[in-house]
C-alpha cells in the first residue's frame, strides 16, 4: 500500500510543501489527485464539492495542474504544440489554430514572467526552460492548484532560486501550490505549511520555522545525523587519470568534450553538475561501456581505452551505475545471483562449466549480513526489494572485490535516508582503505558531504576543480556554466550572469 | 573587477565528422554515376538510338537519344551531382541533387537497355501507378498505425483479406460497391484482431503481425479452394469499377493516362494521401495521434485517451488497407487468386519506412517501388538480359539502405511498438 488514509487540505493562495523521503508515497498521492491513479478509498474535494476523476482530463477541468518529475513534453513538438496539446484551439473541421495558441503562450508567459520561445522545439531547450514550458502548459489551462513534483531535482541552485521566485509570483496571483520535495532547505525557504509523509501516511504538519533537524527526524522517524563523519583525506598516487577525453552520446553529439581529471588513492573526487552535462557518458567511457572518441583513460598508468568492461572490472574497478534497475541489477534474478554477476565464472562460484549453488548461497548470506540488506531471504528476487536495499546489493557486490578505484554514479538516487547514510559511510570507508573514489552526483548536498575535491562539469567540460569548503553559491554558478576569472567577486555580477545562463 | 564567462557553445555537433549525410549520399551517387558512365556506355549498342515516346503506345511523338552518348551524358550528370554533394557545400540542395542524380542514373541505364527500341513513357507511368496503388493504400494504413505507435506488420494480411472479400461479396451481391464496403470490413477485421491483442493484451506487435498474415493467407486460401475454385462464376466473378477519364487532364503527356484515366481507386488514393498528410500535421486529430506515438504518458497527462486513439487509428488503417486490397480484384483483374498480394504489404511497409512515416514521403517511395515493378515488366519485352527478379528485389534493397541510415536519418515514432500501460 503506497498511501494509507492520508488527509491533506490545501488553502487558496498557499504554498503547501509535501515533505517525505524517496518512496514515502508523495508522488502516488499526487498522481491520485491528478487522476492518473485511482484511490481505493477516500475522496477528493475541490472548493467544497467531492469530485471523482476518471483521468487527468477531469482533474484539469477541476482546476488542478501538475508538473511531473519527468517532464511530460513531446520532444519533437514545438513549445506551442506542447502547450496546446489536449486543449487545442481549432477552426472548422478540427484544423489547428496555431496562431491563437501561440499568442496565448506568449500572453501567459509574459503575465507570469516565464520567458519561453513559443516556436522552439522542446528537444533543443535546456531542462530549466522545459520546466517553464510545463508550468506555462498548466497555467494556460487556468488551473487554481498547481502540483510541482520534485521540481528542483534537475535544476542548478540558481535555477532553483528562479523557480522559487516564480512560485511566489503565482501565489500572489491567488494560485495554490503543492510543492513535493525531500529537500529541507527549499521547504523552509518557500512553504507556508508543511505536511510530512512517511511510509504512505501523514506523520504530522510543521511550520516553516521548524529546524532542519526537526523536519528530518519527522521525515525519517528517528533522529538523523545529516553530516558524514570523515577525517581529512591523505591522497597518494594517482589511480585514475583521464586526459582530453572526448565521448559522443547516443544522438551523436559530443557529450564529453576534452575532459581531463585525476583521482588519487585515498581521496574522493566528486563530479558535480546538473544532470545531462556529460557525466553519464564520462562514466560509461571510463567503464568501457561507450567508445572513447579521443583522449586517454589510464588506471595506475595502464591504458583502459578500448578494453572490455570485464577487463576493467578485473583490473580493480568497482562500479555503481546511475540507473540501478537497468544497468545495476537483473530484476528477476535473486539477491544471491545478483551478488555474483561479476564473478559467476570464477571459483569458488564456478567449477568448470557448472555453478556451485552452495558457495553462492553461502557468500550471499555473508554479504547480506555485512551490508545490512533487508530482504526476506537471499533467494528473493531483487525486484521485490526497496530502492535502498537494491542499491546495497550493488554496493555489496562491487565492494567485495579488491578495489583500487570506485566509480559511483548517483549512488543514493531514490534511496531512503537510512540506506544513504550507510552507503556514504561505506564510500568513506573505501577511501580510508586507500581506494580512489570517483563520485558522480547531481545532488549538491551529497557532493559537499563526501568530496575531498569537487570538479564541476558543464556541457562536457570540467569548468573548475574546487575544494570542499567552497560556498554553495560558487559551485551553483559553476554548475550553470559561469566561471570567475578573478578570485574576488561581487555578488551583483553573479546574479545577472546566473540569470542569463 | 569580475570577469564572467558564460559558456554557451551549441551542443548540436554531429558525430559523423566528415561523413555528413550529404557527403555519404554524394559518395554513393559519384560511384554509381562513374560506374553507369563506364558500364552502360560500354554496353550500349553503338549507332542505335533509344526512343522515348510520350504516349502509351510505342509509336507517336517522342524523343530519340543516341544510346551511347545518352548513357554517357546521363551517367556523367549523375556523377557530377554526387561530386557536388561530396564537397559538403551543397547540403541545402540535397533533396534536389539526390533526386536529379537518381533520375539521371535511371536514364543512363535506360539508354543502354532501350537502344534500338522504343519505350512508351505514358504506359510506363501507367504501370508504375498501377503497381504503386496497393502500396500507397498499405503505406497509409501503416502511417495511421505507427504514428500512434502500433507497429503493423499485418498490412499484407489486410490487403489480402480486402482483396478476397471484395471478390466474394462483390460477386454474391453483384455490386462493386458492396465489394468495396466488404473489403473495408475485411481490413477492419484483421485490424481489430491486431488492435485488441496489441493494445489490450500487450502481445508483441511484430510477432502478432506475422501471425495475422499467416492467418489471412490460410483463411483466404482455404475459402478460395473450397468456394472459388469450384464455383468461380458463383463466387469469384465480381463486377469491376470502370475507369473515369477526366477530359483534358487525361491527355497530358506521360502522366495524364496514369493519373486521370484510372478508376475510383486511383482518385481515392490521391485524395487520401493529401487528406491524411494534411490531417496528420495540421489538425487536432493529427497532433494527438503524433503525441500518442511519441510520448503516450505526456498525452495521457493532458487528458488524451491513449488507447482510444490507438484503437481508432488502427481500425481506420484497416479500412484503408482493405480498400487497397480491393483495388487488386474489383479495381483491376476482376477475380481473386490464392496469395494474390504476393508480398505487396511488406513493400508497403518498406515504403512507409523509406518515406519516413510521412504520407507524401511514403507515396513517393511507393511510386519509386512501383517504377521498378513497371521496369521489371517492360525489360523482357525489349529482350533485356537483366532478370526481372533482380528488379523485384530492389524495393527491399533500397529499404535496407534506408534503414541503415545511408540516405539520412530514419526515425520511427519514439514509442513505436510499445504498449501503453498506466501507472
Structural account:
The complex is a heterodimer of chains A (501) and B (423). With 501 residues, chain A is an alpha/beta fold. Chain A is built from 18 helices and 21 strands. Chain A folds into two domains: 15-220, P-loop containing nucleotide triphosphate hydrolases (Rossmann fold, 3-Layer(aba) Sandwich); 238-316 and 402-500, Rossmann fold (3-Layer(aba) Sandwich), CATH 3.40.50. Chain A starts with 14 loop residues before the first strand and ends with a helix. Helices cover 66% and strands 4% of the residues of chain B. Chain B is mainly alpha-helical. Chain B has 16 helices and four strands. Chain B has a three-stranded mixed sheet. Classes of the chains: A alpha/beta (501), B mainly alpha (423). At the A-B interface, helix 2, helix 3, strand 21 and helix 18 of A face strand 1, helix 11 and helix 12 of B. Strand 21 (482-484) of chain A pairs antiparallel with strand 1 (4-6) of chain B, so a sheet runs across the interface.
Give a brief outline of the structure:
With 501 residues, chain A is an alpha/beta fold. Chain A has helices spanning 26-33, 56-61, 79-84, 98-111, 127-140, 157-172, 184-190, 212-220, 279-286, 309-314, 324-328, 335-339, 357-370, 387-398, 417-432, 444-450, 472-479, 491-500, and strands spanning 15-20, 44-46, 49-51, 64-67, 145-149, 176-181, 193-198, 201-206, 238-248, 254-264, 268-272, 294-299, 302-303, 317-320, 350-351, 354-355, 405-409, 436-440, 453-458, 461-466, 482-484.
Rg of chain B, Cα atoms, Å: 24 Å
Poorly predicted segments of chain B = 1-15
User: What's the name of the CATH homologous superfamily of the largest domain in chain A?
Assistant: P-loop containing nucleotide triphosphate hydrolases
Stretches of chain A where pLDDT is under 50 for at least 5 consecutive residues are 486-501
Individual helix count of chain B: 16
Distance between the termini of chain A: 43 Å
Averaging pLDDT over every residue of chain A, what do you get?
Answer: 87
As for the number of domains of chain A, it is 2
CATH topology of the largest domain in chain A: Rossmann fold
Look at the structure and give the mean pLDDT of chain B: 88
Number of strands of chain A: 21
Helix content of chain B: 55-70%
How much of the sequence of chain A is in beta strands?
A: 15-25%
Strand order of the largest sheet of chain B: 3-2-4
Report on the biggest sheet of chain A: 6 strands, mixed
Query: Which CATH class of the largest domain in chain A applies here?
Result: Alpha Beta
Tell me which oligomeric state these chains represent: heterodimer
CATH level-two architecture of the largest domain in chain B = Orthogonal Bundle
Largest interface: A-B, 55 and 38 residues
CATH topology of the largest domain in chain B: ABC transporter involved in vitamin B12 uptake, BtuC
